[in-house]
Specification:
The protein is mainly alpha-helical. The chain has one domain. Helix content is 75%, strand content 5%. It is built from ten helices and four strands. The longest helix has 42 residues. It is globular. 29% of the residues are buried.
Amino acid sequence: MKKIDKRTNLFIILTGIFVTNAIVAELVGGKIFSLEGTMGIEPVGIALLGEKWDFNLTAGVILWPVVFVTTDIINEYFGKAGVKRISYFTIVLIIYVFVAVYFITKLAPADFWLDANSFDENGQPLNIDSAFNKIFLQGLWIIGGSLVAFLIGQLLDAFVFHKLRKITGKKYLWMRATGSTLVSQLVDSFVVLIIAFYISGQLSLGAVISIGIVNYAYKFLIAIIITPLLYVAHYFIDNYLGEEMSEKLMEEAAETSKTMF
């Protein structure tokens, strides 16, 4: 009974980390930040496909690496079935969050709240209700694009991870983890932009490709940098479960994943 409890607890903890970071990443995704400005350096001004682009990224990329690492850990111990279960569950919750936020933005603001926040810190006029709605409401194309990209990315990550596991066996965790992330995020980076900005007519295809390349370059670098965290997580999880239970879970994950996709 104790081993079953540990397995269940591990799944709950990983689910909590996964869902929390995915939802927060979606909520803050509307902010575009300058990587160069954050680092205190001049914009690089890369010439690409006839346009000049700096490292301007969606704030969601700060949290998605945590989702990537969690996905690989779930893959390792619970297989593709575990990844699919959590991914579908997360999509339902993300939809719920956006529906809830939509109706909340339709609530009539209190007069005293508007008056108390009628100026910003620089003394400029401010409509706090309009700002609140602007921050929390994203276009339907962006919401749809992010959900489709998220699901495709997660399922592709699980697929590539276990294809590589068949080749590497228990060794080279870094290879299957980094490889699956790089492949899935290549697709994810462009799917969301194509749906949200190109199909909706907001940006040209060249602009979408340029932004996608910059975003993917960042994700590529982060995927390599955070790889050691997988080994740290592996160490603590193996110690928590015990060697026997840990080996059993990984073997079951590998076996059950052979019959999927």
